[in-house]
Automatic annotation (TrEMBL):
Organism for this UniProt entry: Anopheles funestus (African malaria mosquito)
Record key words, sorted: Biological rhythms, Signal
InterPro entries: Haemolymph_juvenile_hormone-bd, To_sf
GO process terms (BP): circadian rhythm
Signal sequence bounds: 1-33
UniProt protein name: Protein takeout
Family assignment from sequence similarity: Belongs to the TO family.
């Protein structure tokens, strides 16, 4: 691989990472509430470990929760609707090693999460953690960006509009949790998540890259679109960690408010 090719790889990887990280920040809630729902919401299907179709029931229950998050759940604090998701501004600073970037994204709109499918949800009857397979057909992020910095020897300076469309995302999430009791209910204390994922495609465009140098802007966008697969693979460990942080923050917020025994009735009590 030539020096020029390596430089373009590095630049493209940071751009994709930056935009995926912006989605992560949109999703992270700011706080968690202490009071549970007094009664079980109708959208939650209650399952039992001792029923023969527990996995199917649990999958349907989680899908019901996700469907309600699309429109918003009355009484659930600090978790708004997830389609569309909006945020006013995000800042990203990276100054260590070969990467030095001062970037921001503003007026962000993220769509596509309404089509998310919960394929399978398995809850352990031993440690009460769960493994969830989620499929997202397509997501689109649009916003205004401003970026100054460098990747190795390449300056990355520009501002304008951008959009990104990852497609065919399959996420497998493994969650670690323990149980605690409060107000007569059993709750999940979600302590960790581990994520693996694949995507089947990625399209993107960043306008006004390199302060209006059209040739560099067009060639960089074309390169990113033509080579999305190796770029995504190179970024996978970092993106997976970002998704883990997103999901952990969301689940900690939700499950400190909604009792776990609404989802699984025969969870043990001390």
């Amino acid at each position: 691989m030539s020096a020029t090719s390596w430089n373009f790889w590095s630049a493209s990887q940071w751009i994709v990472l930056w935009c995926l990280a912006s989605v992560a920040i949109v999703l992270i809630p700011t706080a968690s509430a202490d009071m549970p729902f007094d009664t079980k919401p109708e959208f939650i299907k209650t399952c039992r470990f001792d029923q023969p179709n527990f996995v199917e029931c649990s999958t349907e229950s989680v899908q019901g929760l996700f469907d309600k998050l699309v429109t918003g759940i009355e009484g659930l604090e600090h978790v708004g609707t997830i389609d569309p998701m909006k945020i006013s501004k995000i800042r990203i600073l990276q100054g260590d090693g070969p990467v030095s970037v001062n970037a921001s994204l503003s007026k962000v709109v993220v769509t596509g999460f309404a089509s998310t499918k919960v394929v399978r949800n398995v809850v352990s009857s031993k440690d009460f953690g769960w493994e969830t397979h989620i499929r997202l057909p397509k997501m689109r992020l649009e916003g205004n960006y401003h970026m100054q910095g460098r990747i190795l020897v390449i300056p990355l300076n520009g501002h304008g509009k951008c959009w990104f469309e990852p497609s065919g995302m399959d996420i497998i999430m493994r969650t670690t949790t323990n149980l605690y009791q409060k107000n007569g209910h059993v709750f999940y204390n979600v302590t960790a998540t581990k994520v693996d994922y694949t995507i089947s495609g990625l399209r993107l465009h960043m306008g006004n890259l390199f302060e209006g140098v059209k040739v560099l802007e067009d060639s960089t966008n074309q390169y990113l679109n033509d080579n999305w697969r190796p770029v995504s693979e190179a970024l996978k460990p970092i993106i997976a960690k970002t998704i883990e942080d997103i999901l952990l923050a969301i689940m900690q917020n939700i499950f400190h408010q909604i009792p776990a025994d609404y989802f699984v009735a025969d969870l043990p009590r001390s």
